[in-house]
Specification:
Blueprint: E1 17-24, E2 29-38, E3 41-51, H1 58-76, E4 80-84, H2 92-111, E5 115-119, H3 121-128, H4 136-146, H5 156-181
Parallel strand pairs: 1-4, 4-5
Antiparallel strand pairs: 1-2, 2-3
Helix pairs in contact: 1-2, 3-5, 4-5
Length: 182
């Protein structure tokens, strides 16, 4: 159903239903969440985290992220993906490693032909909570309110990933219009 590689615009789905994969990248723990949008309605589908072994070599940790995202893509077959942009860390080595993890998180869905969109943490928070400087607990609480069928006690990384998916669901039509203008 999806052709080409990412960054081309939003997919138009015949029945109006679209599955969106949200990703909150991290080298230690990458959160993922999937929501389904049909017209103006959002529903929860799934969530989880991909954890890496902090003592493993970097290449092994990146492969763990890659394989974990592939598993999610194959199991749930989302139509689009959205990734939270990361902030720059004070420690250059940590920033570089996080950038590598983020590269895997961006590349993997694109390699499956999905369009991949990026959103700043402030835009995600503002889209979900109404404030770009909301606390993690506020984001998690609002995500559970917007997705009432979501299980309780979702870990922060997965709740953040669901928030990214919700943000994209709210902005995808605007993204499509902007892509058509270029």
């Amino acid at each position: 159903m999806v052709s080409g590689y990412g960054f081309q615009g939003c997919i138009i789905v015949a029945n109006g239903m679209i599955k969106i994969l949200g990703l909150d990248p991290g080298l230690q723990c990458t959160g993922w969440g999937i929501v389904q949008k049909k017209e103006n309605s959002l529903s929860y589908l799934a969530h989880g985290v991909i954890q890496t072994n902090a003592k493993a070599p970097l290449a092994e940790r990146l492969n763990t992220l890659y394989q974990g995202i592939i598993e999610v893509l194959e199991q749930f077959q989302p139509h689009e993906a959205a990734v939270e942009e990361t902030f720059v860390n004070q420690n250059p080595a940590s920033t570089l490693k996080l950038g590598m993890a983020r590269g895997v998180v961006l590349f993997t869905p694109a390699s499956f032909g999905l369009n991949v969109f990026e959103y700043s943490a402030n835009k995600v928070k503002k889209s979900v909570v109404g404030s770009g400087h909301a606390q993690k607990s506020q984001v998690s609480q609002m995500v559970s309110w917007l997705l009432p069928t979501m299980p309780k006690n979702v870990v922060d990384d997965a709740a953040d990933a669901l928030a990214v998916a919700i943000c994209h669901a709210h902005h995808r039509e605007l993204n499509q219009k902007l892509m058509n203008i270029k």
